[in-house]
Amino acid sequence: MDDNQSATKLLTECQISALENAFKVGDVEERGVIDAGQVQYLVQQVLGDVLTISEVRTLVQKAEALGAATGVLNLQEFKDMVIDLLHTTTTRWGSLQTPLDGYVGFDTVLEQQRKKFLKKGFEFNLMVVGESGLGKSTLVNTLFKSKISRTSCTNELPQKIPKTVEINTVTHVIEEKNVRLRLSITDTPGFGDQVNNENCWLPIYEQINKQFDNYLKEEQSVIRRRQIPDSRIHCCLYFIAPTGHGLKALDVSCMKKLHDVVNVIPVIAKADTMTLEERDAFKERIRKDIAEAEVKVYPSSLLPEDEDVLLANSPLRKHIPLAVVGSDRALTINNKSILGRQTKWGFVEVENPNHCEFSLLRDMLLRTHMQDLKDTTHEEHYENYRRFKLSEDLVDSNGAGA
Length: 402
Hints:
The chain is α/β, with parallel strands linked by helices. It is built from 14 helices and eleven strands. The strands form three sheets. A six-stranded mixed β-sheet has the order 4-5-3-6-7-8, with helices on both faces. α2 packs across α5. The longest helix has 32 residues, at 370-401. The mean pLDDT is 86.
């Protein structure tokens, strides 16, 4: 049996017939071929409009690759391409799904996974980058409503600003409604605090890649642990000083170096030092600077997005950079305990969206996008690093063999 026959056997006769009928619809002139540009329409006619944006994009890329020379596909190429899509890319088979005669019970796999994940627990690794005095530790404590920043949970005495950028990580296990989270917070004292800040991003960049390398070595190990410890940085909060003048050259250079290896979320620190009008004008300047410098911030608009992801990310992008205020002190206002800051102008409520965008940041990090941050780290940033390292090793081995 040749490859074409074995590929066709992956579908039932009815499913294959549906593909052949769709091909005939596209082959109006009965030439035995269809234009590559027709593939998306024809496949959606067969399956129904069920494919996600990223799956459609994959389909179009496959069609363009097959029809690169002539711009057309024959029947076998069309069937092979659709079969490959169905078996490797999507479970959304639409009208090609096989009907069941009764209840089987495999829908409980979600509950099985939930129990497994609850038993194992979850991991999340957050890095904070910014100059001293921008309230990084306070904001982290506010996010998790606990003393979890390095400066808050250690007995270290206040020190002078380091002469070079340091990398410090502290790890906690926190629990909420029987969900355990191993949380690692990495801070970078000394960043941007020197007379000469050239290359102060380098230790941060190297630390992120070091964690990628640790993960890769564990993956390649002959005898490896059943669960590879994940110390890869899933998110970097980049703190911008509330100057009102736009991004500094240091901000631009650092974010451009980091955006290819980590999910960068820029935040305006101590936003309560500006009026709402000043804050909005400052945010607009920063957005313009980010666009001109081609800095890729999370959530990126450059990656494929399904409809539901697009719906969730579009409102967030309008608020980037997020203007935040942190406070790990609760004050009693009208017999109600509220996180906030008392100033001579009034009271700033940290979790009030009319006062700042802290709640947007918290919701994105912890309630809506935590898994996506981890997935993007693994599927984009780590995969790019892995591909580069393995290609580099292959070149070195070929060179040594020569």
